[in-house]
Amino acid sequence: MKATRIMQDDNKDTRPENADRRVFMQMAAGVVAGAGAFGGAPGIAAAQTSPVQPRGRQDKKPNIVFMLTDNLGYGELGSYGGGILRGAPTPHIDFLATEGLRLLNFNVEAMCTPSRSALMTGRFSIRSGTYAVPMGGVPDGLTQWEVTIAELLSAQGYATGMWGKWHLGSAEDRFPTNQGFDEWYGIPRTYDEGLWPSMNETNGLWPSVGAKQGWKAKIVEPEPIYEARKGEKAQKIGVLDVEQRRLMEAEITRRSIDFMRRQVKAGKPFYAYVSFSLMHFPTLPNPEFAGRTGNGDWADCLAEMDYRTGQILGAIKELGIEDDTLVIFTSDNGPEATHPWEGSAGPWRGTYFTAMEASLRTPCIIRWPGEVPAGRVSNEIVHIVDTFTTLAHLGGAEIPKDRAIDGVDQLDFFTGKQENSNREGFPAYVANRFSAVKWRNWKAHLIWQENMYDPPQTLPLPKIINLLTDMKEERDVAWTDSWVADPIKKIITEFEASLKKYPPIPMGTPDPYTPPTLQRTGEEQQPRNPATMDFLMKD
Ligand SMILES: [Ca+2]
User: Around 534, how many Cα atoms within 13 Å sit in the side-chain half-sphere?
Assistant: First the structure.
């Protein structure tokens, strides 16, 4: 287990050989200045253990229900300081938190596509060509070369299903049903495209733009809603518009429950990836929830999201599989930031599409009765890439050894066998910009960007924040806490070495992708001296 830690305890000299800390910091800033498409990149060791013993009772493989909300900020749920403060109680999710582990330092990537890529592959998205939300054009999404958690679990006998937004490839050969899922219902891209067909109508939410000014289907196709099964051609069963968008959550929930029922009947372990549509904009509730709270669309959506979660948890209970089912409830990134649908990050500063804490920290609740201690709360760092490795372990799957895997196995931490996470830090990218590094309570910003619509600003020196004493990231403590530069530099150095050993897949890479010949010399496996990190300076 120790070997999987990205940052070991202070038993190693992490100081650069030829650079004092100040030089390091200048260099780190230089890294940022020189960072191009794949310029600067801090690292996590690629090596990973691959335990293959399933952890369920009597070696029975547990079911996995992964509920991923969309743009749910840290401050929305009652159990995270929101709920009625945001206009709607969230009793089902709050109760779930009392039944399991509530993580306060669960980290994701800054946008939808990168986070979902990390979740599927256990790899930071900079490696997979999925580091930004695609804006038109193909090929987008994950290459077929990537190994998804759905593929790993499927090979271990799991039934695999997904409902909702994919965002990892809008061409059919990259749909979920071609990336390890037995079945899928949902949209390949994103919910805001549901506004297109509605933008030439007078609607209470926005001024009419007139029939001649609005979106044209002849120029850009509307976003289809698909239904797909593995081995069959995906069927277009609808078009995403505002009305369909309102109905998505109910349909995602209905189909998820139907899937679970079928698998229980068949006696098959299952992996249900419930990709909820809320709170992504347009944040509009089902008609049954409209006006429910009296506090507007946002609060009505919060109420609906909590209700749908309750429906899924209710089905798990009704099916008698609570004790055999690991439930994860989390969000793909920080809060929505587009008016009038701004979300809340609670105490944290910033918006998504940045490396501020509002962007990186999301709620995460993990429940597995009898295995994950109930009511536990932790501020240990966990990253969404870790779910890949941990779920692979749970399902008895071996993780791929021919590529860099960033996720670390957190099962012993989740189950309370150990107090600490197996991760002490990680590199944070925003798109292809290496923007920050987190390590324990600290964060070093290399690029400063507070809001998704702000221009990213390269800092002359890294800004070091103590997140325990400065939740709003206001005070640079670089001159008192400069020692933190050492472990942070180690993360940078190791990740950079890993990117060199395993060159990242460029965005837009078509299938079939074949990685360049791996360089497996002893020299390559050693992190390079940062004083000679010339490659960091390249575009
Ligand atoms: Ca999202």
Answer: 1
Q: Is residue 383 annotated as part of the catalytic site, yes or no?
A: no
Handedness of CA 468, 470, 472, 474 (dihedral sign): negative
> What is the whole-number distance in angstroms between the Cα of residue 50 and the centre of ligand 1?
30
Where do the CATH 3.40.720.10 domains begin and end in the chain?
64-414
The runs of H, that is alpha helices, within 278-363 are 296-318, 357-360
According to CATH, the superfamily of the domain at 64-414 is: Alkaline Phosphatase, subunit A (3.40.720.10)
Q: Is 112 a known active-site residue?
A: yes
Q: Which of 92, 167, 383, 393 is catalytic?
A: 167
Tokens of 129: 């060509």
Q: Quick check: 63 and 319 in contact, CB under 8 A?
A: no
Measured between its terminal Cα atoms, the distance across the chain in Å is 36
| Number of Cβ within a 10 Å radius of residue 523 | 8
- Tokens 């798990």 belong to which residue? 316
Give the torsion through C-alpha atoms of 457, 463, 469, 473, to 10 deg. Answer: 0
The alpha carbon of 287 is separated from its chain's Cα centroid by a whole number of angstroms, namely: 29
Please give the radius of gyration of the chain, using alpha carbons only, rounded to the nearest integer: 22
Q: Give the C-alpha separation, 271 to 146, whole Å.
A: 18
- Start-end of H helices in 205-295: 242-266
pTM of the model: 0.87
Burial of 277 (0-12, 13-18, 19+ CB in 10 A): buried
The amino acid at 77: L
pLDDT, tens only, 137-182: 668 999 999 999 999 999 999 999 999 999 999 999 999 999 999 9
Cα 240 to averaged position of ligand 1 atoms, centre (Å): 17
Q: Which CA distances in Å does 340 have to 205, 206, 334?
A: 9, 10, 16
